[in-house]
Amino acid sequence: xxxxxxxxxxxxxxxxxxxxxxxxxxxxxxxxxxxxxxxxxxxxxxxxxxxxxxxxxxxxxxxxxxxxxxxxxxxxxxxxxxxxxxxxxxxxxxxxxxxxxxxxxxxxxxxxxxxxxxxxxxxxxxxxxxxxxxxxxxxxxxxxxxxxxxxxxxxxxxxxxxxxxxxxxxxxxxxxxxxxxxxxxxxxxxxxxxxxxxxxxxxxxxxxxxxxxxxxxxxxxxxxxxxxxxxxxxxxxxxxxxxxxxxxxxxxxxxxxxxxxxxxxxxxxxxxxxxxxxxxxxxxxxxxxxxxxxxxxxxxxxxxxxxxxxxxxxxx
Length: 316
Description:
alpha/beta; Rossmann fold; DNA polymerase, domain 1; 7-stranded mixed sheet; globular
């Protein structure tokens, strides 16, 4: 099976990672290996790329696509939260660059068969890692109405979250919700009419995104990773993060603010007591967005946001 995906903001990623021969990089979300290929072209002959993805399909694809660089790569079927453990296994203490691409791939939507797309009729799975425990079907059919509404609102920013959750609970009393089409039709019928016509996106978009995030614990994992990733960089090492909605970007932006040493004391305090120290510099003063040309060629890039930082050399 071919793994279809177009890397987002490829030129910007390679530029801000400062890819050079002999350096060590960690691509924590391999996807279709587009970013990985471009990085490897810059770091050979002596550079090392550590490629991680929790989707076994991505790892199988990487083994084929990156075979010309097999002496320069280490591939791991794992979640990027385990990067510290992976580096320890390789006896690597720190890397020159880390890439984190938080977007869902075209492969997941089009050919994974796991119910990521509301336009297909597939089993309601949505696990990035098929070895994980909880599926979307289990979540939709077992969570109480209040919890479902909270997920739709918190992760999908869905304004009709309560109404949709109530409808799901009523439907599942009669039949189990097993497919992506079933879930999509329930949402569409619930927000039909004026509420649906005012939307610029498909009515089920936010619910599907929210369920996927909940199933894969995406925001919790991102938040934890952002607490440790900086420590894995060498001095002058770079960290690039591609996020695709405001909740992800908020987590990234908040952590960058802390690392930049900005005061986080409550405004009411007369003086700073947090004693924050600047340990990074932001390479992207404002969030970067894809060009109009890229969005025209790859519509999946339209919501991408990129931030990049560099670890400072701290004199002891």
